[in-house]
Design goal:
By secondary structure, the protein is mostly helical. The chain has helices spanning 21-29, 32-35, 42-59, 71-93, 95-101, 105-108, 114-135, 137-155, 165-184, 192-197, 199-215, 217-222, 228-254, 258-277, 280-301, 304-324. The protein is globular.
Length: 334
């Protein structure tokens, strides 16, 4: 489950001092093999995974809940590594177009050799499966399904769902279903219930994903990619995003799930404004804030999650500033 453009839309707050810049620049290069995982994309992964866990705690009868909470962090780390592998795979495949588009520099511009990136991809793909196997066979199969959808089918040239309008949307929605299920399975391994309760989260992810296709529309057209925005245009994309947002809100209300209902409710005005004004800055706001609102909601149930988000955010700002001179992530709409 991922939006290739989503990491461009997460907030700028601080400006770093320049006195120690030469040392910081050298130090930042040591983090290349960490940031090739694109840690800002972990926000929606972590959030949907945690949502699955807390949904199981809320909706399952106590007698059906297994006391496996101690595994929650371990499986969460394994899922992070697995998704990091999928994100690197995507960059390896897209290196030529990323180089021309001047984005995702680490592999595209040769800061990390492709052989090294491929080795890191394999290691980060295999290790989580070993961890999942220690938990249960079912979790191992689930992890394999997650990687198949978000890594292999999404990125590899023979499939490349990311460059096809409906398959790209399906990959992100299905990825959300599966990641939510991984969180649910910490408390109880079942099939129907997690898929049902994942509906508002998958719809929210779909709403955000479909809007991100607008951001790279011109570049995607140039390289012959058939994303949703390329095939159907800005107006259809925005209206479709609004429909998915309404599905998220309505299904959260039907399922009586406040964890997603209130973030969806607070995000709705941004989608409505984007639909009315049809402008790129308003589309970007509609991309940013749903992720932010849902992450904040998770923090009410798991206060330490705020620390994880803050550390990831500020270390990312430090890295991109000193490594590439970028003020990223940021909350600006342009």
């Amino acid at each position: 489950m991922r939006n290739e453009s989503v990491e461009k839309f997460i907030p700028q707050i601080a400006i770093f001092p320049t006195k120690s810049r030469p040392f910081m620049v050298r130090l930042s290069k040591l983090f290349d093999y960490l940031f090739v995982l694109r840690p800002m994309l972990f926000f929606p992964v972590w959030t949907v995974y945690a949502a699955g866990f807390f949904a199981a705690k809320r909706f399952l009868p106590l007698q059906l809940q297994v006391d496996n909470s101690g595994w929650g962090l371990t499986i969460g780390i394994a899922l992070t590594l697995l998704m990091g592998s999928a994100f690197i795979l995507n960059q390896i495949v897209d290196a030529p177009t990323d180089r021309l588009n001047k984005k995702l520099f680490l592999i595209a511009d040769g800061h990390i050799p492709q052989r090294a990136a491929l080795l890191e991809t394999v290691i980060l793909g295999v290790l989580p499966l070993a961890i999942a196997a220690m938990y249960s066979l079912a979790m191992t199969v689930l992890f394999m399904a997650i990687y198949l959808i978000t890594g292999i089918l999404y990125s590899l040239p023979v499939f490349k769902w990311k460059d096809r309008p409906w398959l790209g949307l399906w990959a992100n929605a299905l990825g959300a279903f599966l990641i939510f299920t991984a969180g649910w399975w910490i408390k109880n391994i079942s099939l129907v219930e997690p898929l049902l309760h994942a509906v508002p989260y998958a719809a929210a992810v779909s709403a955000v994903y479909i809007l991100t296709t607008v951001i790279d529309q011109k570049g995607d057209e140039k390289f012959g990619k058939r994303t949703f925005a390329v095939c159907y245009g800005l107006q259809t994309v925005i209206w479709t995003g609004l429909v998915f947002e309404l599905v998220s809100l309505f299904s959260a209300w039907m399922l009586n799930d406040p964890l997603i209902f209130y973030p969806a409710l607070f995000a709705l005005p941004f989608f409505m404004i984007a639909t009315r004004r049809q402008s790129l800055p308003n589309v970007i706001r509609a991309i940013k804030f749903p992720i932010l609102f849902l992450s904040i909601a998770i923090c009410f149930f798991l206060p330490n999650y705020l620390v994880l988000l803050a550390v990831t955010y500020y270390v990312s700002k430090w890295y991109y500033y000193y490594r590439f001179g970028l003020h990223y992530p940021n909350l600006e709409a342009g």
